[in-house]
Structures are given as C-alpha cells and as structure tokens.
Design a protein that fits this description.
globular; four-stranded mixed β-sheet; 121 residues; 3 helices; 4 strands; single chain; alpha/beta
C-alpha cells in the first residue's frame, strides 16, 4: 500500500489539489502492474496544515516535495521504485496548475513488511 505525502502546495493552488490527487491515482493505477501496486491501494495526502514557509526547507509555491512510502514487495526493484517516483513527478509537472513550479522532487522510502500493522472493520 503506497502512501504519498505531498508538501509545498501554496494556499492559492489548494483548489487544484483534488484534481492532482485524481491524476496521480489514475496514473499509478494505469501502470499498476509495472509499479507492483494493487488497484485502489494508494493513499495520497497533502500537508495543508503546515503552512510555515521554511518548514522542511520547502518554499511554498516554489517547490513541491513528495514523500513516497511503500512496503517492500517481492519483485519491487530499485528500478521499479525509480519509475514510480518518476511517474509521480511527471504527473505533477504535467498538471496545468503546477507546470510553473521550479522544483518537484520525490523521495522514496521502502518499509520492511514486518513494520506494517493494520486494523480493518
């Protein structure tokens, strides 16, 4: 289950965040076999609550920083993780509202399956 956290979207672009979320989900699900991601398993969150200009050295409106946290999985190689990160950055870059952002980066963290816990109703 990939977890994507996006930081650096300014208040004036917040309205576009929902369509960006849909674009990202569509892109990842389109390539779910290539990225080794189950359909509907991706969670995407935006950090609207952190609006300090220098939090994590992110300059709002000038850079978008993406954190991709993903569980290790057999067959999910470094090449696949890089392709997934590239697809995320490319999708944001192509989105009409974010084309003018000077810097978009995606950092990937692979989590050991043993560290994962879940509770379902």
């Amino acid at each position: 289950m990939p977890l994507i956290i996006i930081r650096g979207i300014s208040k004036k672009r917040w309205a576009e965040a929902k369509s960006l979320k849909e674009s990202l989900k569509t892109r990842l699900e389109k390539n779910k076999d290539e990225f080794k991601i189950s359909k509907g398993a991706t969670s995407i969150f935006f950090s609207k609550d952190i609006l300090d200009k220098n939090f994590f050295n992110v300059t709002f409106g000038k850079e978008i920083i993406v954190y991709l946290h993903i569980l290790e999985k057999e067959g999910r190689t470094q090449k696949i993780l890089k392709a997934t990160a590239d697809a995320i950055v490319e999708t944001i870059r192509k989105h009409e509202a974010f084309k003018d952002i000077p810097l978009i980066e995606c950092f990937t963290t692979v989590l050991p399956r043993e560290t994962f816990s879940q509770s379902k109703l």
